[in-house]
Amino acid sequence: MTTHPSTPAENEPRSDSHTDTDTGPGAGPAPRVLTEPELSRLLGEQQFGVLASVRRTGHPHLTTVLYSWDAEERVVRVSSTADRLKPRQLRTDPHAALHVRGPDEFSFAVAEGEAEVSAPAAAPGDAVSRELLSLTPGFEDPAEEAAFLAQVVADRRVVIRIRVSRLYGTALDIPATE
Hints:
Distance between the termini: 43 Å
Strand order of the largest sheet: 2-3-4-7-6-5
Oligomer: single chain
Shape: globular
Helix content: 10-25%
Number of strands: 8
Strand content: 25-35%
Order of helices and strands: EHEEEHEEHHEE
């Protein structure tokens, strides 16, 4: 995505006194840019986000997904099936973004990067099925784990990995009123 040269990026302060929340004299506080640790924490605390990929027409395609954030590797992981639209689009154009809502409607984080799509899980216990297993809370019963590993093979599940190159987001700190 390109921005007009005179338009500041989403997380850069504006050079004029206008903010998107201005409504005239006495307007509320401006959004606060979240720090890298705050963004990473927000991504780690949430489980659902909106994954944006790019259609062949250039239009965005948005899908709500369950994801996992690995802060150390700076990788977002999403489970999908090989023949769904998301993996097909990301194989064609790997540009992706994950938008995650914060603890209130006034905060968010976005993780942008290039996605790679694994091969489908081919055998229970192979590298892809084990990576998919790592996205779950785990199973206490070995039989349930074995059933899960067999199911990911039957479903032709893949792992979408977004190698995050940019994090940004804001929060709007509104004082509590009594």
